[in-house]
Amino acid sequence: MEHLKLGVLCSHNGTNLQAIIDACVNGQLKAELRIVIGNNSKSYALIRAERSNIPVSHISGKTHESLDSIDEAILETLLDNQVNLVLLAGYMKKLGPKTLSEYNGRILNIHPSLLPLYGGKNMFGRAVHQAVLNANDTVTGASIHLVNHEYDVGKVLAQTKIPVNKNDTVDSLSDRVLKHEHKLYVKTLQMIERGNIKLRGLTS
Question: Which residues contact 112 (CB under 8 A, 6 or more apart)?
Answer without folding.
Answer: 124, 125, 128, 129, 140, 142, 174, 177, 178, 181
